[in-house]
Amino acid sequence: MADNYLLEVKGVTKNFRIGGMLRGKKMTAVDNVSLKIEEGKPVILSIVGESGCGKSTLCKMILKLHTPDGGEIILNGKNYADKKGYDAKQFKLDVQPIFQNPYESFSPRKAVDTYLYNTALKLGIAKNMEEAEKKADEALKSVGMSLAVVKGKYSAQFSGGELQRVSIARALITRPKLIIADEPVAAIDASMKMNIVNLFKELKDKYNISFIYITHDLSTAYYVSDYIATLYRGGLIEYGPAKELMDYPAHPYTELLMEAVPRVGDKWNQEYVMPDIESKEYALTCCKFAPRCPYATDKCKQEKPSETLLAGGRSVYCFKPLEAALKREKELVNS
Q1: What is the value of pTM for the model shown?
Q2: In 85-183, at which residue ranges do the beta strands (DSSP E only) sit?
Q3: Closest CA to 187 of 196, 200, 175, 174
Q4: Three-class secondary structure of residue 193 per DSSP
Q5: Nearest 5°: CA angle at 33, between 102 and 320?
Q6: Do 318 and 250 form a contact (C-beta atoms < 8 A)?
Q7: Contacts of residue 38, Cβ cutoff 8 Å, sequence gap at least 6
Q8: Separation CA 12–CA 81 (nearest Å)
Q9: Comparing C-alpha atoms, which of 151, 142, 96, 149 is closest to residue 119?
Q10: Using one digit for the tens of pLDDT, what is the confidence trace for 197-255?
């Protein structure tokens, strides 16, 4: 039932037109994607894939920044399409964003602490400035900072990691149920990335907040996630518990991505992006990975695979899941 879920994304599709109204072509940026997050069981769900796979578009639909062209999004049992049941203030209390570049989230001409006060005052978290300062200080202390350190300072006076912590503190003021973090460590120095994702894990447990972590950074996704969803050309191709999916990928594309994830002792200095992103691949009605897949058969090039359920809450959209995943499934069933 819908009441059992904090968030349901059901068959969501988003189309864009590229190249003008007359001669432009339609591109399906998100293609019939379905995901769920249970109520009362906070998790970090990472959505991974190469640049252009639809991660950020999906994120923006959940944040109500884009309207789906098909499917439904349901939060706390309320459908986004139900205009009568939509409470804009309650939505901002329940769902908060963290964006990629913290320097773009704060005006260089405005002290960063004022953003925290405004959030508390405008959303009714604080009745006056004194209460707003108290709420801001509490939120900042939750991320390892304090109002005494931040007060009166501007964005240029902070490092990227420090400013992203302020962004997280701002999101925490409303005590949200869900935080959407869109590439939150992409613009941060490598030495600070793990500090930020560790913070997500701490906040999830301390405040019972679920996170949707949009990223191409597979190393942090491997470390921080409870669940992972892999997207390719706008479509969901694999979903499941993070360790199972990344250690025993069932889809050939996920396997390819996992080869780029650093293990202990390995060095990894760049994001993995497949070459030649072509718009025509988004329009394929068969398996969109078939043109590149080393295991593809004629069936893969003619039909679109449906969902195959595996043990342990995993699913894969592939006609022939990889042997490693099938072997792992037998181990889980027999254990």
Answers
A1: 0.90
A2: 95-98, 178-182
A3: 196
A4: helix
A5: 120
A6: yes
A7: 4, 5, 6
A8: 12
A9: 96
A10: 999 999 999 999 999 999 988 888 888 999 999 999 999 999 999 999 989 999 999 99
